[in-house]
Amino acid sequence: MSAIRMAISELRRITAGRLPVLAVLALLLIPMLYAGFYLYANGDPYSRLDQVPAALVVEDAGGTDADGNRQDVGEDVARELTDSGSFDFHRVSAAEADRGVRDNVYTFALTIPRDFTAALQSSADFTPRQGILVLTTNDANNYLARTIADTLTTRVRDSVAKEVGTQAADRFLTGFSTIATKTREAADGAGRLADGATQAHDGAGQLASGAGQLASGQRQLADGATQLAGGADRLAEGTGTLATGAGTAATGADRLSAGAGELATGLGTLRDATAQLPQQSRALADGARQVADGDARLAAAGSRVAQESARLADRLDAADGTIAASLRRQGFTDEQVRQALAALATAKQPLVDGNARVQEVSGQLDRLGSGAEQVADGAEQLAASAPQLTNGIASAADGAERLRDGATELSGGVRKLSDGATQLSSGATALSDGADRLVAGERTAVEGTDRLADGARRLDSGTAELATGAGQLRDGLSAGVDDIPDPAPDVREATARTIGDPVATRDVAYSQADTYGAGLAPFFMALATWIGGYVLFLLVQPLSRRAIAAGQSPLRIALGGWIPAGLLGVLQVTGMYAVVSLLLGITPVHPFATLAMLWLTSMTFTAIVHALNALLGAVGQFLGLVLMVLQLVSAGGTFPWQTIPGPLWPVHHVMPMGYAVDALRHLMYGGELAGVVGTAVPVLLAWFAAALGLATLAAYRKRVWTPSAVKPELVL
Length: 716
Fold this sequence. Notes:
- This protein is mainly α.
- Among the domains are: 3-44 and 515-710, no CATH class; 47-171 and 485-500, D-Maltodextrin-Binding Protein, domain 2.
- Helix content is 77%, strand content 3%.
- Helix 14 packs antiparallel against helix 15 (618-634).
- The radius of gyration is 56 Å and the shape is elongated.
- This is YhgE/Pip domain-containing protein.
- Its main location: membrane.
């Protein structure tokens, strides 16, 4: 039974009835429901923050600036927050805000204290103190709301700091004492930079030396890969010849089996036909002996008749002279005597002819008697050897049946040998192709190590220049401390604005997710794919017991157990992709490649869960949940994976979900595809191959029935 037929049989089993069909449909809906509802609920939460209630408390008493002008920075901030619509702000008292945050009436409260404006103006009097914005939160209300409120408070603080900083910078630009101090510190830092650059130059020299050794070793690897490719080509050619010969042998074994069957049938028929041969040959011998005795008596009688006939013929011949003499005595002329003799001869002719026939019949009777005697002797011999002949024919028929059975087994064995030789030939060809790709990769690696060695040499040269430049920077800063310029008023004003807001940001996005939900889509689609593959084996049987009992190939059994789940998993992720892209409007940059990656991810995840179930049973189901949890926390689906605890880093680098999430991000947002093709796809394929190997091992081990297999301690 082929793997495809096993898969079809399993699909028929799990869909045999209305409830099983409904169960299969429910399992198919799980990934699309999981990913669809979650992404729908979290599609763009930031666009609905204006519905989140927040308390705004303004206690700022205001103040006057150095020119006597009235300032109410707190009111300005409150008006800006209310007009922005970032949250549903409610201006309330401090007590009401505090009570509202505790009772979850307000998600958080932002308080602008009474001395906020005065604190911002304190730097002018050289009694600086910070203006405080008080953010009151309650994580019992919502943790992320606090994080978003922190971000909002930071933006407000930066806005106020920009205005205040500009004013302060304008006042302080008349003196450059701080700048001179910082310049001296910079000179000291430049000295440390020069020392570090010198050390970097030394390290770059070591790097250049090591890179040269690496390039030499890489060339040796490339030579070895070339030798491997040549050997793989010869192996592929030899296995091809083996597959052809095995196919020819299989054909000959089939013909031998058919011929042996025909021989067994013919000998069986002959055995049945000759079963009564000993009795019949004995009866034949007795009858032949009676015939021989009768023929002997008949031959003796014929011999006596022939003798009498011969004497009669002789007397008739002698009577011619007597008759002629008698006629002449009676006066007949010679002519009349001749006529009489002629008439007599005519009259005797029938007697002469009859004598000849009698003599001939006598000879035939003698020969008949002799032949009958020989037949009787032969019949005796046949009767004596007939039992041995019958037994020999029966033995030959039994041997022919055993030959037929053996030829049938030989035909099956040779056919398996032919199939194995064909698979071996395909594997050898794949090995040859892989060896060729390895040679190409090693050549690329040689070029890369050569470039690395060249870059290391240039780095060595560059760090030398860096060390020289750092020394010059140190000397220049030391010499320039006393040369700080005095800017003009307009220059001072522009400088103050720059100091107040020194950094501007310009977003450069190589790829970008449109919404929060779109940003989470790769992670939750990959997680939903694992969950979908896990629940499939609540219905699908990992391995066919019939195939195991029939002695099928372990690899064929493993494939037959995975294919149903693989097909259902592909249907699951296809439905999930349709929901995410068509209903939720999350459109990937590479739609077909994204769907193909989801297919590959589903096939890999179902293969892993299949291998765990096939190899470990109920323990394997539990391990499937454990692996899901480990990948959930280590895949880097929400925060960058580098933020996870150090002990989880190896899990991220080994487990497949992180690679699937990264690949889906690049495919959905338009990122670089080299990592998808060069890293994610090979890793998923490697996991798929490893899982299939474990399932094959499980099928091989389960050919031997153990007490725990017949009656397991735990069944889920």
